[in-house]
Amino acid sequence: MVETLIPRPAATVMTIRDRPNGYEILMLRRNSRSDFLGGAHVFPGGALDAADAEANGRVYGLDEAEASRRVQVERGGLAFYVACLRELFEEAGLLIACDENGSPVSFADVDDAQRMAVHRRAINAGQLDFLTMMKSEDLLLDLRGLEYIAHWITPVGRSRRYDTRFFVALAPSDQRATHDARETVADEWIRPVDALAAYQRGEFDMVTPNIRNLQAVAGLARAEDVLSYARSLEAIPCVRPTVVDRDGVLVVGAPGGGGGGERPL
Question: What is the pTM of this model?
Fold first, then answer.
């Protein structure tokens, strides 16, 4: 039965960039034909893969012990960091990586950008493994600027349940985000305040965790302020929404209110 589903570990990343009128965040619109969150605007992310836990030799700037301490698990914390950057590349084409000396990867060269786009298509088609690609390119996932910001678990009663860690990262300046035209059908850089306003007008569908995470950072001015805010969080609570009946309509309710506290199931 649905009620007995064990939440799958997952990771998602709020990717941000500065603009003159305020920082923007990358959101992808899911295919309306999807059986999960169809039509909703989401951050890049997804469930952990078994290979994510085997990527210890393909990361830079963070080890397993420190990663587990940050996400408040006994072991296996590094896989959450790996998963969100893997999903960011698969779903949006952005690769936050570096060489063994810590120099960031650049897509400024057209040939490099095209080659990585071919890799991305092969990964999404199931013809190439992400870590195999990283090894062949002699690259490491750069975890130095990836900050843990929130933890949500999908409520009992949903057809799919996820135990999701949310992260925030600065988008690479010389790369262009593009949706995968499969799971997602559009990509948009948008200020958090504009996304929230559009949601209130019924023009921008979002799920409760994303609404609440946008509300937490919407008042900040710059991308670095968002990263600093995330770094300042000493203990991140696990938010466990519930499904409640409001006059015959099932809604997802989350603690704390704040405008994103309840929405239709």
Answer: 0.90
